[in-house]
Hints:
332 residues; 9 helices; CATH 2.30.170; Rossmann fold; alpha/beta
Amino acid sequence: xxxxxxxxQAAALAERGEPVALATVVWRQGxxxxxxxxxxxxxxxxxxxxxxxxxxxxxxxxSQAQHVIADGTARLLLLGTTDKFGGAIPDGMTVVPISCxxxxxxxxxxxxxxxxxxLVVVGRSPMAQALADLARGLGWRADLRDWTDFSASDASKRxxxxxxxxxxxxxxxxxxxxxxxxxxxxxVGSRRRGAAVLGYxxxxxxxxxxxxxxxxxxxxxxxxxxxxxxxxxILAELVQFRAAGGLRGAGPLAGAATAEAGSAHAETALARGxxxxxxxxxxxxxxxxxxxxxxxxxxxxxxxxxxxxxSAGCRTEFESNPASYARKESRC
Length: 332
């Protein structure tokens, strides 16, 4: 892909609800295979599509990009040794020292490409329709479902679900929504009605910790209002929830699967809307770089410990004098 195709694919992935990071090379010092303007997409699972540089730069960019996806904040990286720059490194720049045989350096800007929020409104009342329309006006993806058509597969852990059936199917809709585990789940109705619905589901065996996540009544308390104003109050609460970081997932990326199995698992997780696992990583004992702990890391077993390396040169150096680099325990 050329750099513009990378941008287009990043936008397409975000449209489908997949969070990614976009990395752009903004400066280089040769010799380096990365070129100014080169771009790549990095997924939450650590898959890179595009090109930003060779074996020295790629693992560090992937690792930093996963942090960008997790916290939603862009970063400017300096990849290379800092002795060439003295005290001229700008405040706020993340310096990642790398020991690369080419002795080149790169500055890479990594920005989050945040998916549009996904809202599922369950119900067929005028308020439900108004809420869906308002959300679309903000550029959100909004689906409107009758309770008879709604199932757990209509939402994911990054979705927000508002049940507004006006008593026609509250219990069934909440039960399906709980199974989906959305980031936000609200029920439109009085506190008394909410207590009855949640009590019914508790009697059916739904876990208390799941029911405790249901917001009843959904929306900010504006007093006696019209159905459109109720929709505004709910949307305001959802905007506040998003601004507070409620859609950033369940925290740090989970992980520990092999690099080979991780890719297949990541595709399944993305289809469900889950946070895919982070590929396991290790530290090159020779140069100190962070590397993928899999086949790409050129694994070498020594005294019962498996080591990984950024390049064939580092692996050869270790083999020539393992006593100088061996550690007591593996970090894999």
